[in-house]
Specification:
Radius of gyration: 11 Å
Number of strands: 4
Order of helices and strands: EHEHEE
CATH topology: Translation Initiation Factor IF3
Number of helices: 2
Number of domains: 1
Strand content: 25-35%
Strand order of the largest sheet: 1-2-4-3
Structural class: alpha+beta
CATH architecture: 2-Layer Sandwich
Length: 83
């Protein structure tokens, strides 16, 4: 998982904690559809494979994965910018 010092500013945040693949990605896709191009979505997850899932999702869809980091409470945060 990428550790970043700079945390992007999110326009919207969704909570996908406790959900396993593919549900965090499906919720991300639905939330991104509500955003304008260039806006940033923060997604909270606890699925241990979510980092790879988000990398693949962004590679396939053309959205930009700005950052991923693990919080002290073991929640992963993924910052996705809509294309």
């Amino acid at each position: 998982m990428n550790m970043t010092g700079d945390t992007p500013r999110a326009d919207e945040e969704i909570d996908a904690r406790g959900l396993n693949c593919p549900l965090p990605i499906l919720r991300t896709k639905k939330a991104l559809a509500r955003l304008d191009s260039g806006q940033v979505l923060a997604v909270l997850t606890t699925d241990p494979h979510a980092d790879r899932d988000f990398q693949a999702f962004c590679q396939q869809t053309g959205n930009v994965l700005l950052a991923q980091h693990m919080r002290d409470d073991a929640v992963q945060v993924h910052y996705v910018q809509r294309r």
